[in-house]
Write a structure and sequence with these properties.
The chain has 285 residues and is of the alpha/beta class. The protein has two domains: 124 residues, Translation factors (Elongation Factor Tu (Ef-tu), domain 3, Beta Barrel); 146 residues, Nucleotide-binding domain of ferredoxin-NADP reductase (FNR) module (Rossmann fold). The strands form three sheets. A seven-stranded antiparallel beta sheet has the order 4-3-9-1-2-6-5. The longest helix has 15 residues.
Length: 285
């Protein structure tokens, strides 16, 4: 969660909802793809950046606004001179463990309720840690959970459309609770499996073995199934690992990488090397 004190919210921009589409079936959690038209032509958000959404609140805890950051889910574009942004939003709610009350996510419900023509207030852009390496032979291991697929979709599109001639391996691991909740990896909107260079890019998905029981998504199993290739990639000095999604994915990944590396200690050393070399980056919430 982004805190107001951490970001510049004085520079605000008005964006108009041009299109909003539910990406998941009615029987699953609601995830919407929302396309925005920013009214100020000077606003410029790139694939390695995020933008904020400001929602007025009742002033609880002294805050007049709720601020939430979102990654761009497609290549930023312009229509009639105005910037166009695509975002993914999951309608969220949670039950307070102390009083048992259900609370609706402020920004997610606000955005999912918007209709075409509605105006929202955005901020930014803000830097994301996911950078395209200058070395086109670099390898990328991308790991996303849920709407964590958003920055990687734009990132990968940018590499193959704008950077071009990529020589390194790109491996995307994406987790969703069920096959119905896979985004950009299905028959309806499967550009992450159909669009890219087969020689360098592969996408793998991981699902929960019992989605209706809220069992953990088996992302660790999907990674371990490709242990030989992942170990080979981690053995190279030009491999980057980028992670986006739920915070709880960290424990799962550390366990999976420790298993394929042979021990927890070996993985801790390799991860420390990646972090020190600025080749490990994460955006978790």
């Amino acid at each position: 969660m982004a805190h107001l004190a951490d970001f510049d919210i004085e520079h605000k921009f008005t964006a108009k909802v041009k299109q909003t589409e539910r990406m998941t079936p009615p029987e699953t959690d609601e995830v919407r793809e929302i396309k925005l038209e920013v009214q100020d032509p000077a606003f410029d958000c790139k694939v390695d950046q995020s933008f904020g959404v400001l929602v007025k609140t009742d002033g609880s805890f002294g805050n007049k606004y709720h601020h939430r950051l979102y990654s761009v889910a497609d290549l930023p574009d312009r229509e009639n001179g105005k910037p166009m942004l695509t975002m993914l939003v999951k309608r969220c709610s949670y039950v307070d463990e102390f009083n048992g009350e259900l609370y609706r996510g402020v920004a997610s419900n606000y955005l999912c309720d918007r209709k075409p023509g509605d105006e929202i207030t955005i901020t930014g852009p803000f830097k994301l840690p996911f950078e395209v390496p200058e070395d086109k032979t670099a390898n990328l291991i991308l790991i996303g959970m849920g709407t964590g697929i958003a920055p990687f979709r734009a990132f990968i599109k940018h590499i193959y459309k704008n950077v071009q001639d990529w020589k390194g391996k790109i491996r995307l691991f994406y987790g969703a609770r069920s096959g119905l909740e896979l985004l950009y990896l299905n028959d309806k909107n499967g550009d992450l499996t159909n669009y890219y260079d087969k020689d360098t890019f592969e996408a793998f998905h991981a699902l929960s073995p019992r989605p209706h029981w809220s069992d953990p998504i088996a992302l660790d199993a999907a990674i371990e199934e490709r242990a030989a290739e992942i170990v080979e990639m981690l053995g190279k000095t030009n491999t980057h690992v980028y992670v986006a999604g739920y915070e709880k994915v960290n424990d799962m990944l550390n366990k999976a990488f420790a298993n394929i590396m042979g021990s927890k200690e070996k993985w801790q050393i390799r991860k420390a090397e990646l972090v020190a070399g600025r080749k490990w980056a994460e955006v978790l919430y």
